[in-house]
Specification:
This protein has about 60 residues and is α+β, with helices and mostly antiparallel strands. About 20% of the residues lie in helices and about 25% in strands. It contains 1 helix and 3 strands, in the order βββα. It has one helix at about 45-55, and strands spanning about 20-25, 25-30, 40. The chain has a 3-stranded antiparallel sheet with strand order 1-2-3. Strand 2 and strand 3 form a beta hairpin. The model has no long low-confidence stretch (mean pLDDT about 90).
Length: about 60
């Protein structure tokens, strides 16, 4: 299975962001700078909670 990894268009060609891919019911997340570091597999609810926390600024300054 070939995954279609995506990253924010705001990151342009930079390699210092995260990439995401869908795999079945999971959302996979990896570091675009160090792809060999591993992948997080998140359930849909976990993914939505993470995105909401980022958008609301709940993770700023940590």
């Amino acid at each position: 299975m070939t995954l279609s990894w995506r990253k924010s268009s705001a990151s342009s060609s930079a390699d210092d962001c995260v990439e995401v891919a869908a795999s079945g019911r999971s959302v996979l997340v990896r570091d675009s700078h160090d792809r060999s570091a591993g992948v997080l597999a998140l359930a849909p609810g976990q993914w939505h909670a993470l995105v909401n926390a980022i958008q609301n600024g709940n993770l700023d300054g940590r």
